[in-house]
Every structure is written in C-alpha cells, then in structure tokens.
Design brief:
This protein has 144 residues and is mostly helical.
Length: 144
C-alpha cells in the first residue's frame, strides 16, 4: 500500500539546515533560518577550519624546530657530531629547517584551498539543494 503526499498519517517533511545539524535543533523546534544566517554560519565554519589548520601546523613547526635545541641540550654528544666539518646543529637549524618550513607552508596552502573548495561546495548546495555538485563530493565526516 502506498501513501499519498496528503496522507494525514505521514509526517510533514522538514528541511534540515547545516546550523540545525551543528546545534542539534530541528526546524520544528525553532523558526526557519534565513539565507543570510546560513551564509554567516558557513563563513564562521570556514574561518574556524582555517584557524584550526593554522594552529595545528604551528604546533608541528614548534615541535619540529623547537625540540631540536632541547634535544641537543639533553644529548650534548649529538651536538658535537660533525658532518663535512660542520656541526650537526648548524646543519639542522641553518640548512634543513628551510625545506621543512617550505613543506609546512605548502601543506598549509593545499589544505586551506581544500577548506575553501568545501566551503564553496556547501554554498552551492545551500543555494540550490537539488543540484548535485559533480566536481567534488563533500565528505560526510573528517577525522580530526
């Protein structure tokens, strides 16, 4: 037996907005969200994602480069090692630190661009919920 859209036993369909999913509320519990509020929520999410990315990579740099002086202070024998007449701390902090920083910067740009593509896809999906973005699927959940 099929039910018609006007069947009184069938519950009314409600549209779930991203803000409702994040806050745990539903459309039946509160008034509808205006498009500008949704845009603000999406933009705040983008800013929050970019900030989290920047902080994570800052921790990587601090741990990667900041731990070297501590390591050489705790193990002075490694600080005395020479390679081609140059002591190991000079090689690590004076030469190899730059490729490390370039790699972290490249990773930041790549991940920041991915965040912005996801944001643009969410905007397109919010503006036209029936349209499916074929160029890039939005991931359901991302491990953090």
């Amino acid at each position: 037996m099929t039910t018609s859209p006007t069947d009184p036993e069938r519950p009314e369909r409600t549209r779930i907005v991203l803000a409702e999913v994040a806050s745990g509320t539903h459309a039946a519990d509160r008034p509808a969200t205006s498009p500008s509020e949704v845009q603000d929520i999406l933009l705040r999410g983008l800013v929050r994602a970019q900030l989290a990315l920047a902080l994570r990579l800052a921790v990587v740099v601090l741990v990667g480069l900041g731990s070297l002086p501590l390591f050489f202070a705790l193990a002075p024998s490694f600080g005395a090692v020479t390679i081609a007449g140059v002591r190991l701390p000079w090689i690590l902090l004076g030469v190899l630190a730059y490729p490390f920083l370039i790699g972290v910067g490249t990773a930041f740009v790549r991940f920041a661009n991915r965040n912005e593509r996801d944001f643009a896809a969410l905007q397109r999906r919010e503006n036209d919920p029936n349209r499916r973005d074929e160029s890039r699927e939005i991931p359901r959940a991302r491990g953090r």
